[in-house]
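Lecture notes, unit on protein representations.

Consider one protein chain, 228 amino acids long.
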Amino acid sequence: MTPEKNKIGSLPAVRRLPTYLHLLRSFSESGREMVSSTHIAEKLKIEPIQVRKDLAITGIEGKPKVGYYIPALIDAIETFLGWNNTTDAFLVGVGNLGSALLGYEGFRKHGLKIVAAFDADDSRVGQVIGDVEVLPIHKLSDLAMRMHVPMGVIAVPAESAQSVADAMVLGGIQAIWNFAPRSLDVPDGVVVQNEDLASGLAVLSVKLARTREIRETAGTMLPAGNGG
């Protein structure tokens, strides 16, 4: 196991933690205080051993035959993910996708606060979207450096993504959430999370096709009904 993996846990497990957190918050809101890994597994349709392994990366341990104290488990997951501290971010590109991201209130629950947006289109500069003002792109690097903003969100077309990433790196941004359909070239020490919407759609489309095949095959195997 590499030191980095040992520090953050396996990435599939990290990706599952928000799902656990959403379920645990619903339990907490209903007044529940304890939950077992078996019950979590049943709700999420996965194996209990997987739940225990995933939650173990946060450093918390359940009590045998009792389970987890939900408030403590929520706190452990939020602390591990860094969601109990607010991270400021700049967003670049306020087209349809960027505007939708700006309007999404759930980010603040997850410790992300988009404090400013930027766009190269002068007609968009000065607009306020979701309480965030749109600024001209040439101000990005200087403001990021002055405000010590650690994270950037890229929601621009593919051909503009690298230049935006360069401006973010110049401003000292250390983490980039990239929604543009291309890979980015960044220095060591800058982390990038790519969200490839086309890849996600491809997986969903294949699953849909397989589901249709299964249903069609099952339909051909049904016994013929008796005529009335």
